[in-house]
């Protein structure tokens, strides 16, 4: 097996990956909280996880991936304060919590699929696993890691030797100060870092979903779901646990605390965290008002795979800034790639030696801390290589097992829609040109530019000439 490395947050360094069972990987990824649409920042996290999983598969591993859907218990602060996100979502839309959960789960997977992600092998909503949560809380109480206070069950973090497992000593001090200064104080907690495993009393009494439990009617805390759902489907050990960097503290820290206290042994050796997508005003977040989704980008004329390329061109550990200008650049690159692939002839024999050489380079890039930007550079190199078209096409297909940009699918569609062949496309372009002329006449240049960009995202460039507007393929 090729050497495969990525940054392990637990060790704070790039590490060589060795699963527990040779050739097999059990991987858990925290799923969405379905009280609102997933924004393109959330989707960045899922694209980079998809790239990790497909890279492991490219390297020869057999991967089983489990993901939860948070449909209960996640409060507006990641600590145990604030309003329940699902209840707030239901109130906002005058619907029931389950209606909200269904609607936003469907919306999430529409965008998740559109950007070329493969669905996890197991997808489990938290509300399916209440009996497992109750069992874990019972065991934690029995083992002395939990206590009941004011009607709620809390995890006692003072029982652990090292609670802040992800942090250096300097970071630990900062976190301690941060937790101490947290605005809202829960007087039931013995230690500031203790967290709720099961609520029966919370400051909001209108909790819609409640279940019987040994501690009274109530509902689970947020963190418990990931520990239980992963163990239900992957057993006592997982190889890799993924999330965005905001999940490191407190969510993943608390997951480790309760899982290892419950199991009595180490639970997961490798933690993969991807960095955030920011916009001009900072971290993109669902609670910040207007939510930019992949579906919205699509309505604006961008192919969701252009957004995938935009993400893959940047390293997962770096923050990424979103702007339409950056996305337009990705659209132009995507269209050029599709055009190049559409020009290849399908006849000829694949040169297996050249193919293997490029595949080895590609594998090196993705196995080296998931260097997707380098993998794309190797794709460009392969397209320019001194070899025949059949070999280049075979390489495009091979690399697409990880990149999932559907370059050949789009190239075939483009070839099919050659000028003069597709009357529908021609009619669409002429209609867009007419709309743009109207907008320009009305001095609505923003709309005129948006129409030009819409065409560009479909691989069509328009030019204003003395003879009128002409179009060509990008
Ligand atoms: P949520 O639905 O809020 O629970 O988030 C789903 C996933 O998206 C989590 O793994 C978060 O860490 C991640 N996430 C949240 N905000 C961002 C962002 N701005 N950029 C990238 N990932 C994010
Ligand atoms: Zn989680």
Structural overview:
The chain has 474 residues and is α/β, with parallel strands linked by helices. It is 46% helix and 16% strand. It has helices at residues 40-58, 85-93, 97-114, 130-142, 169-180, 224-234, 248-263, 294-299, 304-312, 324-342, 352-367, 372-384, 389-403, 407-416, 423-441, 445-457; strands at residues 5-8, 13-16, 24-29, 62-69, 122-125, 146-149, 152-155, 195-199, 219-220, 238-244, 268-274, 277-279, 282-283, 320-321, 460-465, 468-473. A five-stranded parallel beta sheet has the order 5-4-3-10-11, sandwiched between helices. Strand 1 (5-8) and strand 2 (13-16) form a beta hairpin. Helix 6 (224-234) packs across helix 7 (248-263), helix 9 (304-312) crosses helix 10 (324-342) and helix 11 runs parallel beside helix 13 (389-403). The protein is globular and about 75 Å long. The mean pLDDT is 90. Adenosine monophosphate binds next to helix 1 and strand 10.
Key features of this structure:
474 residues; alpha/beta; Rossmann fold; Four Helix Bundle (Hemerythrin (Met), subunit A); 3 domains; five-stranded parallel beta sheet; four-stranded antiparallel beta sheet; 16 helices; 16% strand; binds adenosine monophosphate; binds zinc ion
């Amino acid at each position: 097996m090729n050497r495969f490395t990525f940054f392990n947050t637990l060790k704070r360094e790039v590490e060589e990956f060795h699963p527990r069972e040779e050739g097999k990987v059990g991987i858990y990824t925290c799923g969405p909280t379905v009280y609102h649409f997933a924004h393109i920042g959330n989707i960045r996290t899922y694209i980079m996880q998809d790239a990790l999983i497909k890279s492991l598969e490219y390297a020869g591993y057999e991967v089983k991936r489990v993901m939860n859907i948070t449909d209960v218990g996640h409060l507006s602060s990641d600590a145990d304060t604030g309003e329940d996100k699902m209840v707030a979502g239901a109130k906002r839309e005058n619907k029931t919590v389950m209606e909200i959960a269904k609607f936003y789960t469907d919306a999430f997977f529409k965008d998740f699929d559109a950007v070329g992600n493969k669905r996890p092998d197991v997808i489990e909503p938290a509300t399916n696993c209440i009996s497992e949560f109750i069992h874990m809380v019972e065991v934690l109480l029995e083992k002395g890691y939990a206590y009941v206070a004011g009607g709620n069950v809390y995890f006692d973090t003072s029982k652990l030797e090292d609670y802040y497992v992800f942090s250096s000593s300097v970071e630990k001090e900062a976190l301690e100060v941060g937790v101490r200064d947290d605005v809202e104080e829960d007087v039931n907690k013995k230690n500031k870092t203790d967290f709720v495993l099961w609520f029966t009393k919370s400051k909001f009494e209108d909790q819609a979903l409640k279940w019987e439990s040994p501690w009274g009617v109530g509902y689970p805390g947020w963190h418990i779901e990931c520990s239980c759902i992963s163990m239900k489907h992957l057993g006592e050990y997982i190889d890799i646990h993924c999330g965005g960097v905001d999940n490191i503290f407190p969510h993943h820290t608390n997951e480790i605390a309760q899982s290892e206290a419950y199991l009595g042994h180490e639970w997961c050796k490798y933690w993969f965290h991807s960095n955030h997508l920011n916009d001009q005003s900072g971290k993109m977040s669902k609670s910040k008002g207007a939510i930019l989704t992949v579906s919205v980008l699509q309505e604006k004329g961008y192919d969701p795979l252009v957004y995938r390329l935009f993400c893959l061109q940047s390293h997962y550990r770096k923050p990424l800034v979103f702007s339409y200008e950056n996305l337009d650049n990705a659209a132009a690159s995507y269209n050029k790639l599709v055009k190049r692939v559409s020009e290849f002839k399908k006849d000829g024999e694949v040169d297996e030696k050249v193919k293997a050489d490029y595949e080895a380079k590609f594998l090196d890039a993705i196995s080296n801390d998931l260097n997707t930007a380098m993998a794309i550079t190797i794709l460009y190199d392969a397209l320019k290589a001194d070899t025949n078209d059949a070999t280049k096409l075979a390489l495009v297909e091979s690399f697409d097992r990880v990149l999932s940009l559907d370059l050949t699918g789009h190239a075939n569609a483009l070839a099919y829609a050659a000028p003069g062949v597709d009357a529908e496309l021609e009619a669409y372009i002429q209609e867009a040109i007419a709309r743009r002329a109207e907008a320009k006449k009305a001095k609505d240049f923003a709309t005129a530019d948006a129409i030009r960009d819409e065409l560009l995202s479909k691989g069509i460039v328009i030019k204003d000439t003395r003879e009128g507007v002409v179009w060509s393929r990008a």
